[in-house]
């Protein structure tokens, strides 16, 4: 566009730029936009006094999408449903006041090509490539540069790890057979655990996805044993292996289950001794530093390891994945474990889900099938045109935790398949491990059920149980909510449950710091040694004259923290399903909202259900709410899924 045309546009809508800036204040005040988003746009407006309304609006929306898990703003999606790209409450809850401007007011007559053309003209926006503009426009996707760079970095680093298979010694056939000897398959389905292990032997990148109890840890432990056997046969040093997970809770779980699985391995003492037992959080592994986003380890100062296993990889957001991949030595192996069907990370991105998008339907390449046959005796029909990613992804499909008699397993499978009829049949089948408080549409009934669930814990505390004993029982029961706000959400239920426990005398107070208050850390604090997602409980500390401390389980015992030093935490009698990722509980009371809402998706229901190990109680909701949830999928805008799809296209074209 020439300068003359540019000024023409401005003159035609002289006040629209100012109106967008005014709207930010409205939207921020109404909670439709984060303060961060509004600041960002004001900063851009200061730097480019000519920036037109459409560019400022797009910047606000692109920034806002990050808080909702999207890596970028898809222009066509924003045009199709402009209100959906802000955090507007559902219309039935509160109709916007007439004077509040809406995004569509600024988008009239614009299609995505025209919007993109207008963005491309802005000095604030550049096409993909190196540069310093705050925004990058890739096709019809608008990114904040930081996220575009992260996406590029993840794709480039993963791409370098594909293909180039590593040599696998024929001598591993015997220990492989021994380690998987007990994996009898009773039908003609392959032993997917053995497939995963065999393929991983030749890869620098392996992704093993599977639902709860499908044997991800068991498989990776056997893989580590094989690789360490191979390494120790040629060098006394063996491999430097590290285990990690995104949260402290997930790292503790991985440590416990790997330690258990290592004990059961049929391998020599030298291999046993050279296997790791302790997992770190990713932040600790990478060297998080206070007050900076940069880690101690990066491309210029890579991690000192030969193999890294990351559990709960679905929780790793795009930026953390980029930081991790940049810090990985190029020749080291990376193994990602996770459940592709779970909710994606709280922060933007859905890397694991995107990588596994086609895993269920893909075959393996002819060379991979040859290795499977030769080393593991597994015959598979090769797929000559499979994606370069195919040999790096294996889905474990059989749960050893939820068998044919498990209602939790049946509900999880039906939810994943979006099969409403199967979901209903699971309720009618009379499974002992699931029940539905469907009749109770009142909050009081749910609170009573919650208090009944927690009573045993408070009896133990009253009987003088030690912090270690209390922490061991913290996972016995947990209330999970789909929503944050409202009587059916975390805020309403936390207050209600605390009040009831207080009235019953289980806790001395129900506000502030009181003994028996369960808390979750919401921000990493490396100095204090607590990390986002860690769950602890407030108890009187005998070693501190019974003054209150917050106790957390650590790999070597318990950590006691002064309540006043814990800056970011929240009470978790009830927690959102999002926050429960990476944790499991013996009995879960899963509270569903009264009405269908866009937040309630198949992935959320699946994640909520599968947090329960032995007993699941659903509360609230009804069959209409479930039907709507099972039909709604989480979609996260990013260019990464396109990169994965393009890998497939390359081979097929
Ligand atoms: N092939 C198998 N045969 C029999 N039992 C198995 C097999 N694989 C795993 N298990 C058992 O199933 C349980 C779950 O296994 P594991 O912890 O490896 O699964 P996971 O997928 O890592 O689970 P989680 O959902 O906890 O992450 C363990 O008790 C394990 O011993």
Automatic annotation (TrEMBL):
Reactions mediated catalytically: ATP + H2O = ADP + phosphate + H(+)
This enzyme's EC code(s): 5.6.2.3
Gene Ontology MF annotations: 5'-3' DNA helicase activity; ATP binding; ATP hydrolysis activity; DNA binding; exodeoxyribonuclease V activity; single-stranded DNA helicase activity
Family matches, as CDD domains: DEXSc_RecD-like, SF1_C_RecD
Domain AAA+ ATPase: 202-341
SMART domains hit by this protein: AAA (SM00382)
InterPro entries for the chain: AAA+_ATPase, Coronavir_polyprotein_1ab, P-loop_NTPase, RecD, RecD2_SH13, RecD_N, RecD_N_sf, UvrD-like_helicase_C
GO CC field: exodeoxyribonuclease V complex
Keyword ATP-binding appears in the UniProt entry: yes
SUPFAM superfamilies from the UniProt entry: P-loop containing nucleoside triphosphate hydrolases
Superkingdom, natural source: Bacteria
Keywords: ATP-binding, DNA damage, DNA repair, DNA-binding, Exonuclease, Helicase, Hydrolase, Isomerase, Nuclease, Nucleotide-binding
GO biological process, one term: double-strand break repair via homologous recombination
Note: In the RecBCD complex, RecB has a slow 3'-5' helicase, an exonuclease activity and loads RecA onto ssDNA, RecD has a fast 5'-3' helicase activity, while RecC stimulates the ATPase and processivity of the RecB helicase and contributes to recognition of the Chi site.
NCBIfam families found in the cross-reference section: recD
Function: A helicase/nuclease that prepares dsDNA breaks (DSB) for recombinational DNA repair. Binds to DSBs and unwinds DNA via a highly rapid and processive ATP-dependent bidirectional helicase activity. Unwinds dsDNA until it encounters a Chi (crossover hotspot instigator) sequence from the 3' direction. Cuts ssDNA a few nucleotides 3' to the Chi site. The properties and activities of the enzyme are changed at Chi. The Chi-altered holoenzyme produces a long 3'-ssDNA overhang and facilitates RecA-binding to the ssDNA for homologous DNA recombination and repair.
Subunit: Heterotrimer of RecB, RecC and RecD. All subunits contribute to DNA-binding.
Family: Belongs to the RecD family.
Protein name per UniProt: RecBCD enzyme subunit RecD
Gene: recD
């Amino acid at each position: 566009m020439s300068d003359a045309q540019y000024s023409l546009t401005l003159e035609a809508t002289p006040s629209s730029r100012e109106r967008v800036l005014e709207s930010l204040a409205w939207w921020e005040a109404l909670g439709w936009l984060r303060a961060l988003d509004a600041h960002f746009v004001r900063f851009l407006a200061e730097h480019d006094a000519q920036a037109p309304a459409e560019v400022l609006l797009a910047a606000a929306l692109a920034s806002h999408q990050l808080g909702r898990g999207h890596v970028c703003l898809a222009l066509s999606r924003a045009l199709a449903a402009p209100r959906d790209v802000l955090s507007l409450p559902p219309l039935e809850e509160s109709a916007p006041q007439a004077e509040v401007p809406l995004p569509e007011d600024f988008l009239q007559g614009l299609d995505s090509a025209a919007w993109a053309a207008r963005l491309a003209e802005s000095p604030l926006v550049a096409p993909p490539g190196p540069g310093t503009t705050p925004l990058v426009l890739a096709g019809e996707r608008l990114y904040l540069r930081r996220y575009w760079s992260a996406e590029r970095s993840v794709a480039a680093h993963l791409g370098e790890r594909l293909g180039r298979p590593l040599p696998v010694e024929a001598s591993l056939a015997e220990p492989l057979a021994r380690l998987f000897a007990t994996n009898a398959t009773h039908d003609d389905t392959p032993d997917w655990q053995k497939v995963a292990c065999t393929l991983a032997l030749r890869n620098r990148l392996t992704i093993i996805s599977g639902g709860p109890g499908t044997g991800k840890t068991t498989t990776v432990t056997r893989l580590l044993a094989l690789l360490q056997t191979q390494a120790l046969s040629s060098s006394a040093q063996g491999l430097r292996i590290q285990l990690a997970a995104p949260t402290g809770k997930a790292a503790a779980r991985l440590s416990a289950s790997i330690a258990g699985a290592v004990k059961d391995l049929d391998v020599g003492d030298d291999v046993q001794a050279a296997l790791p037992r302790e997992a770190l959080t990713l932040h600790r592994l990478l060297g998080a530093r206070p007050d900076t986003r940069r880690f101690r380890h990066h491309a210029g100062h890579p991690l000192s390891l030969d193999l890294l296993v990351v559990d709960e990889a679905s929780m790793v957001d795009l930026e953390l994945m980029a930081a991790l991949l940049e810090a990985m030595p190029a020749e080291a192996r990376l193994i990602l474990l996770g459940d592709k069907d779970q909710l994606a990370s709280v922060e933007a991105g859905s890397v694991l889900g995107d990588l596994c998008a086609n895993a269920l339907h893909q075959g393996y390449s002819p060379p991979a099938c040859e290795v499977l046959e030769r080393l593991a005796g597994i015959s598979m029909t090769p797929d000559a045109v499979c994606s370069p990613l195919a040999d790096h992804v294996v889905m474990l499909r059989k749960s050893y935790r939820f068998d044919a008699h498990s209602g939790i397993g049946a509900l999880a499978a039906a939810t994943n398949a979006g099969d409403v009829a199967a979901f209903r049949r699971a309720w009618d089948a009379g499974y002992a491990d699931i029940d539905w408080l469907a009749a109770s549409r009142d909050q009081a009934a749910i609170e009573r059920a919650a208090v009944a669930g927690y009573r045993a814990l408070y009896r133990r505390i009253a009987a003088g149980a030690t912090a270690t004993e209390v922490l061991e029982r913290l996972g016995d029961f947990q209330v999970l909510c789909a929503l944050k706000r409202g009587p059916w959400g975390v805020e309403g239920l936390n207050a209600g449950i605390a009040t009831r426990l207080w009235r019953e005398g289980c806790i001395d107070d129900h506000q502030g710091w009181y003994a028996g208050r369960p808390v979750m850390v919401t921000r990493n604090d490396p100095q204090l040694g607590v990390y986002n997602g860690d769950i602890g409980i407030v108890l009187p500390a005998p070693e501190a004259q019974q003054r209150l401390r917050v106790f957390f389980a650590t790999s070597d015992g318990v950590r006691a923290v002064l309540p006043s030093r814990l800056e970011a935490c929240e009470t978790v009698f009830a927690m959102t399903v999002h926050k429960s990722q990476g944790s499991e509980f013996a009995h879960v009371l899963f509270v569903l909202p009264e009405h269908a809402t866009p937040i309630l998706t198949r992935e959320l229901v699946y994640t909520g259900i599968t947090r329960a190990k032995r007993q699941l109680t659903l509360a609230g909701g009804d069959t209409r709410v479930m039907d709507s949830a099972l039909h709604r999928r989480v979609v996260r805008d990013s260019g990464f899924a396109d990169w994965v799809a393009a890998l497939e296209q390359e081979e097929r074209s």
